[in-house]
Design brief:
4-stranded antiparallel sheet, single chain, about 40% helix, globular, about 100 residues
Length: about 100
């Protein structure tokens, strides 16, 4: 499994996450369509936020990054949020109690 964490902070991050919160259903539908998706979480930290995506492989992680980038450009480009800090890696342990 592969994971990507995208952290948004600084100029426009709060406004971006305010928008993402109001458009939650759109975001869930978009990221829910990523091939090999295992889990997706979007967190509003008050002054910005972050997302965590877990996929079966790197192709899924790459697809999720591209879909998020495209959605933000189309729906929130006017906000002017800085590009996220992106961290990727292989999953060592994953616990799901659902």
């Amino acid at each position: 499994m592969q994971t990507v964490l995208r952290r948004y902070s600084g100029k426009g991050a709060k406004e971006l996450f305010d928008l993402l919160e109001t458009r939650r259903a759109d975001v869930e539908e978009l990221l829910g369509g990523v091939k090999g998706l295992i889990a997706y979480t979007l967190v509003h930290s008050g002054d910005g936020g972050f997302s965590v995506t877990i996929c079966q492989d790197k192709a899924g992680v790459d697809e999720s990054v591209q879909k998020a980038k495209d959605w933000i450009a189309k729906n929130a480009g006017n906000i002017g949020a800085a590009a996220p800090e992106v961290t990727e890696g292989s999953v060592i342990a994953h616990v799901n109690k659902s």
